[in-house]
Structure formats: structure tokens, C-alpha cells
Design goal:
By secondary structure, the protein is α+β, with helices and mostly antiparallel strands. The protein is built from six helices and nine strands. It has a domain at 22-195: Pnp Oxidase, Chain A (Roll). A hairpin with a 2-residue loop joins strand 2 (41-48) and strand 3 (51-62).
Length: 252
């Protein structure tokens, strides 16, 4: 079964079941993966010596696996290296909602919590492929345009992989939702849409004369929604055969 088959869904148990407003919960691969692929910054929660930590990190998805990277000296990566429970979350913040009662003030959002056992990627080939996709997931074809990373640079970077064992998405898209009798009150109410858009690119002031912006960055245009560009880039980066990446990752 394809990971994004409309019939595919993550198992639901006490760990990932949406308890409050369960009508907003979604467990199907299509919804969960769509929200993950339209983001690039997540927060990884884990426990070290009995204390909770939550680390922001860039991440990417391939099928039902998540990947993120960091310094080899990172406390998070050292903790997760041998296999440890982790939870990666992302949130798309869509609006602030002003109602006619403080109780009904809210926000529209789309969020995901993904649970699994995170492990260090130890296969050299898997790590090599992952470091390519760390860049190409955001900018397809970018790595081929760059100076190759040195052995020292690669050694200084670690990659964590986590198969998604459980996941849930939670979505609110209601706007103003007051008690029926409150609509008769002379109180202003509104929805304030929130959009994250791409600004005007700022070329490095030390770029050499004549170096043009590559055509494969065209998806990142001023005024375009960031999540649209990210989702488009993800689809392009993983289009077609995985070129051995799936096998390499699975062996890690």
C-alpha cells in the first residue's frame, strides 16, 4: 500500500488519540503527510535524565519516516542515538479569532504530532543520501550545484531517523464560533488571517559578478505562501524512483 493511499491511516491508541474536540482529529496518512510536507521547522520532544526537552529543528519526510540533523555534539542527538522515544510536532498558524466572549476567543490552526523511536543514522550511504535530501527537500537539485561537503563537515553532522509509529493531525478552521444567543450582542467579532509569505530574495553581497539566481529556486517567489513552496519542493524532490534512498535508509 502506498504511504499516501487515501485508505492508509496511522493506528490510534492512548498515545495519539485526540481527546479534546476529537472531531478535529485526523489520522490518515494523506492529511498527516500533507501538513508535514508543507512545513520545514518542527519541534522534537524527548527526555534526558528525567527532564523534558523540546528542540526546534529542520526536518523532512520520506514515506512514513522523518529525518532531522544536528551537530554531532548535540545533546538531543546523543540522547536519541541508540533509540529513544520522541515526538515531533509542527503547527500551521492560520488565524486569531475574536469572539463576543472571552471563552470563545480562539485560533485556527493545523497541527501534527508524530510519535516513534528515533535512532542515529549509522550507514555511511544512508547518511550521505540524507544529507543530500536535507538540502534538496527544500531546493530540489540544489546539492548538484554546490561545492561538495568535506569529510570533516560530514563527520560534524549527525542525522536522526524516526519511523512514524503513531500520528495525529488536529485542525480548527471555524473562524468565529459564538453561542447562538451572543450573535445578538452589539460586540465586534472578527477573524484575523495569518499568512507566512516569502519576501524579496537578498543576494549575498559578496556574490561574484554574473552569478545568476538558479532557475530551480523559482518556486520561492516574493509574496508566495511559504507552505505552498515547501509542499511543491517536497513533491519535486521525491518524484520518481527513490534512486536507492529507500533501501539505504532502511538499512540504517
Amino acid at each position: 500500500m502506498a504511504a499516501d493511499d487515501v485508505s492508509a491511516a496511522y493506528p490510534v491508541d492512548a498515545r495519539n488519540r485526540v481527546r479534546r474536540r476529537h472531531d478535529r482529529g485526523h489520522y490518515d496518512h494523506a492529511t498527516v503527510h500533507r501538513l508535514l510536507d508543507a512545513a520545514c521547522l518542527g519541534h522534537v520532544a524527548y527526555v534526558v535524565d528525567g527532564w523534558p526537552y523540546c528542540t526546534p529543528t529542520l526536518f523532512w519526510r520520506q514515506d512514513t519516516r522523518l529525518y532531522w540533523h544536528g551537530s554531532s555534539a548535540s545533546r538531543m542527538l546523543r540522547t536519541l542515538a541508540d533509540g529513544a522515544p520522541a515526538c515531533l510536532t509542527v503547527t500551521h498558524f492560520d488565524s486569531l479569532v475574536l469572539a463576543r466572549c472571552g471563552f470563545n476567543h480562539s485560533a485556527d490552526y493545523r497541527s501534527v504530532m508524530a510519535f516513534g523511536t528515533a535512532r542515529l543514522l549509522t550507514s555511511p550511504e544512508a547518511k550521505r543520501r540524507a544529507l543530500v535530501m536535507m538540502v534538496d527537500r527544500l531546493f530540489p537539485g540544489r546539492t548538484a550545484q554546490l561545492r561538495a561537503s568535506t569529510t570533516r563537515e560530514i563527520r560534524a553532522t549527525s542525522v536522526i531517523s524516526m519511523t512514524i509509529e503513531r500520528a495525529s493531525a488536529k485542525i480548527r478552521a471555524k473562524g468565529v464560533a459564538d453561542e447562538e444567543e451572543d450573535y445578538a450582542l452589539p460586540i465586534h467579532a472578527e477573524r484575523l488571517p495569518i499568512h507566512t509569505v516569502i519576501g524579496t530574495p537578498e543576494p549575498c553581497p559578496r556574490s561574484l559578478p554574473g552569478v545568476a539566481r538558479p532557475a530551480n529556486l523559482g518556486g520561492y517567489r516574493p509574496g508566495r505562501a511559504l507552505e505552498t513552496a515547501l509542499a511543491e519542493a517536497h513533491a519535486a524532490a521525491f518524484a520518481g524512483p527513490p534512486d536507492g534512498a529507500e533501501t539505504a535508509y532502511a538499512e540504517a
